[in-house]
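Thread: "does anyone have the structure for this chain?"

Original post by V.I.:
We have the sequence but no experimental structure in hand. Need at least a predicted one for the grant figures.
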Amino acid sequence: MAEIYVSGHRNPDMDSICAAYSYAYLKNKIDPNNTYLPVRCGSLNDATKAQFERLGVVPPPFIKDVRTKVSSVIRKADSVVQVDDPVYTLVSFYGTSSRSSVVPVMEGEHYRGLLSVDEVSSFILKENSGKRPLYHFVVDNFPKVLKGSFLKKGERKSFTAPIMVGAMRYVVFCRHMEALEGQAPILVVGDREDHIKKAIELQIPAIILTGIEHEITSNVDWDSYRGTVFVSALDTAETLRLLRLSVPVVQLMVQDPPSLQADTLFEEARDILAESEFRGLPVFEGETYTGFVTRRCFLRKPKTKLIMVDHNETEQGVEGLEEAEVVEIIDHHRLGAAKTRNPIFICCEPLGSTCTIIYKLFIRNSIPITAQLAKVLLSGIISDTIMLKSPTTTFEDYTAVQDLLALAQVADMVAFGQTMFASGASLAKENPRRMLESDFKQYKELGVSFGIGQCEVTTLSDVDDYKASYLAELQKVKIEHNLDWAMFLITDVVRENSVLLMTSMPIAERKLAYKKESEGKFLLSGVLSRKKQLLPEILRVLEE
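Reply from O.Q.:
Generated one for you, tokens below.
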């Protein structure tokens, strides 16, 4: 099962958001083998935000880009160990080839670290360091690795000590014990009375008795001993081998190893791991541990699967689109899609709204449309066709609206649309940059790079109040986006007229068919559509 994003264009308008939401809903109904997630790659404009609130619908969440992240290759552990578990438990995980080389260490439900065969190897190799090694023992781990039982448990639940084997003559044994002054050992010994009494006298932390078949024959005062006594059914050599593996795994952990965030880019994470000394690194979302990655995770780079709605050109899509795998395109604009590696489903029709196309796909696939979903589709169509007044409106848009009005149980389309448009921002009160870029599309034709933003309002009477600030900000947009020409179409959805603000381009301005009212301001009577009316006029001017 794959996760597939459904995304509209940058600076999304109502149709783009409604299309992403409704098409993801449709795909989840007809393809249960995958999960379709509606997303957006820009901020919601005020009208869209207010409309979704009115409908009680959660709008698609924002995603910054669709470049491959660590989250795409993250692994979950087959098994974990607790901080106090013996190394023996960790080593046993490597007995099957299906286990990862990396095992998470937890403290209850909380992540503490990662361990691999490298840490186990380092632990074993310290036996050859030239000095008698010290081990941290947890008393409760003895029966987890040794076959046997406690004769008594001491006062200390854990301690650090070297290991001494009582296999030598008593005199030599005493000399070795004295040499360890300040480092009382854990004693591994058979049923040897003198050795045991000496250990009790010195109050060493623990005594491991080996090779006891029936009962202890040594006559010693166990009551005076404050340490732990464990009786092992194994011989001394085997007891000694396994005793080392009773050390808790927390002792093997490296302090402050590097970590990754789930949204770290694939290549960046791969390089961090490659430059580190570790086989794997933990992955977090903020402060929450989510899994880990190993070197094997980076052998193949997966691609984010994406469906493009209400656009088909890479330049208008979400950041990182060139790295993603586009699996479908649903659109009503001119076709400028990039080449795909495999054949994909493309449904592009010259209709007034992408939501009209999606409505037809619901009908084609016999998927019922709920009243709430009908309102979402209605919102997209009414917005993009400006209440069916735009020249982009077709008979199919009209019939789709009539069907959806019935399904949504909405009696008056005009009232529905006016309420929706009235929620749009007041250009005089809003931040000019935010409004200019809220629905801004860039084009490159005939060697000229230009951009056109659009906003729907319910009056044009106050344009002169904010014209100067918008023209100044439009000039900044032009420079920052490296454009030759920048425009902002302000459309009165009630009176079906528009005003066009633009940066200076004298040669082109003189050829425009629109009335120039003042510097940077043109009146566009009857113009409602950027795509069908304004863009063709701009292209005509550039050709001339």
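V.I.: this helps a lot. The chain has 17 helices and 24 strands.
O.Q.: and The chain has a mean pLDDT of 90.
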